[in-house]
Amino acid sequence: MSNPAFNDAVHDEAEELLPWYATGQLNPADRGAVERHLASCARCQRQLAFERQLIEQVRALDVAVDSGWARLRARIVRPPRSASTLARATRGFWDILRRPGVAAIATAQVVLLLVAAAILVPMSQPSYQALGSSGAPATANIIVIFRPGSTEQDIRELLRASDASVVGGPTAANAYLLHVRPERRPAALAALQSADIIQLAQPVDDARS
Amino acid sequence: MNLRGTASRTPAGGMRPGGADERELLNRVGARDLDAFERLYRLYQPRLARFLINLVRRPQLVEEVLNDTMMVVWQTAGKFRGTSKPSTWIFAIAYRKAQKAKARWPDPVEAKGEDRRASAEPEPDEQLRHSRLHDALITAMNGLSADHRAVVDLTYFHGMGYREIAEVLDCPVNTVKTRMFHARRRLRAAMIGSLPDWL
Question: I want to staple A175 with a disulfide (CB 3.0 to 4.6 A). Which of A32, A171, A185, B31 is the partner?
Answer without folding.
Answer: A171
